[in-house]
């Protein structure tokens, strides 16, 4: 089954498209053969309207209605082109995440999430069934609705002790640095995982770059590399209840918006600007990622207790042994260097494409995977701690809504899916070697 995944992140950089051919074997191993990925620029005027509609901007319902239609039309155009560009014209299903405009979180609970991009326009343009609106079912079941990538990370990076695959003992941290950064901590195959948003990824850096230079982001981390971290400003930025809250948790540009940095620095460093400000925001992202993943690793499921209180040893199975990075932040060497400085000795930092997953297409491949799972009646969230899902939901849910509402031809799959194997060869042959494939 070939599924085309479409997504656009909180930075509204572009519409990402990725197609994959899925084959689920009787052994519970799901083989995903990436067919290719690409991206399509938003029309400048529409991108500007989307950015102006993000919090804290007041938006009337007329603008919401127009954006829902215009975004859906643009996703439809991108989907139609991607079917030919990356899948040779052969796609069975389109899975569209849409464009997030608002993620409604109060305290520790998510109440709703709004992604615009009406699926009827996508179905009309692509002439394919479309699964969309992936987050709300999980929120209705008590989950955060984000991050949803935990299911991919758990299946892909889970370590099988019976079939050594080169994965180190202990935990792998799958880290995606988009506008918001998120982490999934993965141990053995089918073991519970923990996934959460750590806080700002690129969003505060990007906002500052646009204000300072007019550039959309800090290309290659160049400006941040020339600045000096302001420790007083960093402490003020870190003084936010979100960073101390327990996982699973989710956030977005509702919290880390254009007013966040001026508000936090007003009393301590109101005049901080230029390269020093960019360096400080880069440090904020690195610190919050590192501290978050290390603290959650030790606290998860009671495993944070020392193995021998007299010696102060910790359980090696709860140590983070590698961090696998994807997303736009993976292109920022200054950010990665600062993150590496905070990781414990012996923890490997590598990019997702070193394991066969293109760093710029992981989100699009995620939604292709979620579309496949939903089409077969399989839950789209991974198992979490304490009889919950990785998102905090009370139960497993099949995610998304189908457009048009006609029965899918693919039968429901009732057995467990244990692993996800990336392959660029015919199914059943050798696994995909390291490297990227466009």
Shape: globular
| Beta strand count | 13
User: Which CATH C-level class of the largest domain is it?
Assistant: Alpha Beta
The SSE order reads EEEHHEEHEHHEEEHHHHHHEHEHEE
Uncertain spans: 303-312, 425-438
Counting helices, strands and paired strands, the structural category is alpha/beta
Average pLDDT reading: 90
Tally of alpha and pi helices: 13
First and last CA, distance = 19 Å
User: For this structure, what is the CATH homologous superfamily of the largest domain?
Assistant: ATPase, nucleotide binding domain
Q: How would you sum up the major sheet?
A: 8 strands, mixed
Indicate how many domains the architecture comprises.
2
β-strand amount: 15-25%
At CATH level 2, the architecture of the largest domain is: 2-Layer Sandwich
Instruction: Compute the CA-based radius of gyration.
Output: 21 Å
Protein name: Anhydro-N-acetylmuramic acid kinase
EC number: 2.7.1.170
GO molecular function: ATP binding; kinase activity; phosphotransferase activity, alcohol group as acceptor
Catalytic activity: 1,6-anhydro-N-acetyl-beta-muramate + ATP + H2O = N-acetyl-D-muramate 6-phosphate + ADP + H(+)
Structure description:
The protein has 438 residues and is α/β, with parallel strands linked by helices. The protein has 2 domains: 2-142 and 392-422, ATPase, nucleotide binding domain (Nucleotidyltransferase, domain 5), CATH 3.30.420.40; 155-355, 2-Layer Sandwich (Nucleotidyltransferase, domain 5), CATH 3.30.420. The protein has 13 helices and 13 strands. The chain has helices at 44-53, 61-87, 119-126, 136-140, 150-157, 203-212, 222-226, 231-238, 241-244, 260-265, 274-299, 333-342, 362-375; strands spanning 2-8, 15-24, 29-40, 93-106, 109-116, 130-132, 171-177, 180-186, 194-200, 320-326, 348-351, 401-403, 419-422. The strands form 2 sheets. Strands 1, 2, 3, 4, 5, 6, 12 and 13 form an 8-stranded mixed β-sheet that branches. β10, α12 and β11 form a beta-alpha-beta unit. The two termini are 19 Å apart.
């Amino acid at each position: 089954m070939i599924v085309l995944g479409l997504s656009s992140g909180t930075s509204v950089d572009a519409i990402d498209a990725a197609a994959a051919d899925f084959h689920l074997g009787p052994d519970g191993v799901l083989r995903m053969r990436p067919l290719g990925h690409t991206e399509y620029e938003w029309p400048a005027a529409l991108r500007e309207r989307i950015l102006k509609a993000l919090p804290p901007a007041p938006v009337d319902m007329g603008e919401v209605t127009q954006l829902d239609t215009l975004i859906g039309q643009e996703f439809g155009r991108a989907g139609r082109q991607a079917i030919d560009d990356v899948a040779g014209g052969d796609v069975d299903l389109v899975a569209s995440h849409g464009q997030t405009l608002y993620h409604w979180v109060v305290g520790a609970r998510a109440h709703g999430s709004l992604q615009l991009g009406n699926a009827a326009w996508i179905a009309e343009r692509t002439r394919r069934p479309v699964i969309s609106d992936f987050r709300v079912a999980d929120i209705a079941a008590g989950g955060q609705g984000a991050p949803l990538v935990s299911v991919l990370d758990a299946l892909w990076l889970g370590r099988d002790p019976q079939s050594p695959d080169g994965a180190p003992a202990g935990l792998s941290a799958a880290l995606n640095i988009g506008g918001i950064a998120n982490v999934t901590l993965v141990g053995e195959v089918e073991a519970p995982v923990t996934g959460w948003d750590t806080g700002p990824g690129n969003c505060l850096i990007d906002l500052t770059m646009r204000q300072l230079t007019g550039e959309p982001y800090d290309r290659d981390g160049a400006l941040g590399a020339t600045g000096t971290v302001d420790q007083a400003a960093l402490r003020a930025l870190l003084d936010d209840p979100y960073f101390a809250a327990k996982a699973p948790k989710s956030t977005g540009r509702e919290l880390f918006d254009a007013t966040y940095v001026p508000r936090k620095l007003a009393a301590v460093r109101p005049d901080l600007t230029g390269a020093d400000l960019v360096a400080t925001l880069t440090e904020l992202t690195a610190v919050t990622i590192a501290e978050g993943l290390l603290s959650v690793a030790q606290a998860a499921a009671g495993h944070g207790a020392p193995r021998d209180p007299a010696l102060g040893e910790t359980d090696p199975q709860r140590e983070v042994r590698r961090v696998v990075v994807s997303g736009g932040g993976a292109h920022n060497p200054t950010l990665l260097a600062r993150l590496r400085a905070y990781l414990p000795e012996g923890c490997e930092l590598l990019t997702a494409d070193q394991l066969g997953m293109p760093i710029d297409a992981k989100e699009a491949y995620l939604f292709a995977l979620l579309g496949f799972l939903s089409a077969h009646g399989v839950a789209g969230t991974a198992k979490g701690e304490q009889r919950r899902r990785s998102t905090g939901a009370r139960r497993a849910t099949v995610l998304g809504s189908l457009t048009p509402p006609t029965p899918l031809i693919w039968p429901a799959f009732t057995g467990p899916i244990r692993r996800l194997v990336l392959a660029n060869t015919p199914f059943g042959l050798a696994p995909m070697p390291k490297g990227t494939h466009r």
